[in-house]
Design a protein that fits this description.
Layout lengths: L3 H21 L9 H14 L3 E10 L2 E3 L24 E10 L2 E10 L7 H16 L7 H14 L3 E2 L5 E4 L9 E2 L20 E4 L2 E3 L6 E4 L7 E4 L5 H6 L5 H14 L4 E2 H4 L12 H17 L3 E3 L2 E4 L5 E3 L2 E6 L2 E4 L4
Antiparallel strand pairs: 1-3, 2-14, 3-4, 5-9, 6-7, 6-8, 8-16, 9-15, 10-14, 11-12, 11-13, 16-17
Helix pairs in contact: 1-2, 3-4
Length: 337
């Protein structure tokens, strides 16, 4: 089992993550930009003793996940209008907190203006998450968790998203090799073999949609999320010796590795690292250098990037998430105030 001091860090991360959601959700109002809410959430985390475990993300209507703003506020593809909340929008806010490498990950869905247009979907999203958590006892096979997550969604007339899932958490790892199903995957599904493990930490986050496909798809381009991650697959020293990286590229790669380890980070967090080596460069030149750096670091598999995600048939997406710790007696929810 987890040591008491270790568990305290996990609980502290969960508490800060929950307080962030509860305090920042009130900022999601008509006329407010997505960027304002994202930055307020990240500042709140830091002010309360944590560090973002990943960039705060906003997903509106048919957008499902994995979008944060870049340093220029570039609009997500398909959003020709400014990224400003409008009355009736269905908004997902997802925040993660790390404290000493222990992670709390949680999300909620709300309707801008509380007009009652999405009440049933929001209710089904909460019940789906909570039903899945009720099954998180040691030894429960994963397909039983998926069945529990899907039932409230189907009963309410919505569809479960099948190609997004929850995940195991570990020290400094957001996705630690185990996926948690959110639909009736069946006991033979190769991706969901095994069972709930005592002492494990899991992010339970079923997604559902008003659409019929039950699938999400990538939003172009490949870096549409504005989120990157150091893979850990490249030794910088060896890459420099083999001339896969030039000295400046290796220097900047070391900065990224030191700052973020292998947790996801935002483009807008990292972009300022170019100010020191290129103090006289204008915005256009610095952007060009950033693009070249990222392209190179991805090509040598030092970095990976993410697509933002949306429902494949335009359905509106709902999601709620908690982080849980598995004890002898069952799940303990860590993302509580």
């Amino acid at each position: 089992m987890v040591e008491e001091i270790d568990l305290k860090f996990w609980k502290d991360a969960g508490h800060v993550a929950r307080r962030t959601l509860e305090n920042i959700k009130h900022e999601i109002k008509s006329g407010v930009t997505w960027h304002e809410v994202i930055e307020k959430a990240e500042r709140y985390i830091v002010r309360n003793g944590g560090t973002p475990a990943f960039p705060a993300t906003i997903a509106v209507n048919d957008v499902a996940a994995h979008f944060t703003t870049d340093h220029k506020g570039t609009a997500l593809e398909g959003w020709e209008e400014k990224m400003v909340f409008q009355k009736g929008d269905l908004v997902k806010l997802d925040v993660g907190v790390q404290i000493q490498g222990r992670i709390g990950d949680n999300a909620l869905t709300l309707e801008v203006g509380n007009g009652g247009n999405h009440t049933e979907q929001i209710k089904a999203s909460i019940e789906s998450r909570d039903s899945a958590i009720e099954q998180m006892h040691p030894g429960t096979p994963w397909h039983k968790v998926g069945e529990a997550a899907e039932q409230p969604v189907v009963d309410a007339g919505f569809s479960s998203i099948q190609n997004l899932c929850g995940h195991k958490l570990d020290l400094g790892e957001l996705h630690a090799g185990v996926s948690v199903p959110s639909y009736r995957c069946g006991y033979e599904h190769p991706g969901y073999q095994g069972e709930v493990q005592k002492g494990g930490f899991y992010a339970i986050e079923p997604f559902n949609t008003t659409g019929k496909s039950g699938l999400i798809e990538n939003i172009k381009p490949s870096n549409s999320s504005n989120i990157y991650r150091v893979t850990g697959d490249l030794d910088i020293r060896k890459a420099l010796a083999k001339k896969k990286l030039k000295p400046l590229g290796a220097q900047l790669a070391r900065i990224l590795e030191t700052r973020y380890n292998n947790l996801p980070f935002a483009e807008r967090w990292a972009f300022p690292i170019l100010e020191k080596p290129f103090p006289e460069a204008d915005e256009e030149s610095r952007q060009s250098k950033w693009n070249a750096l990222v392209k190179k670091l991805i090509s040598v598999r030092f970095l990976e990037t993410y697509h933002a995600l949306k429902c494949s048939d335009g359905g509106f997406i709902g999601q709620f998430e908690h982080t849980v710790y598995i004890t002898d007696g069952g799940p303990e929810i860590l993302t509580v105030e």
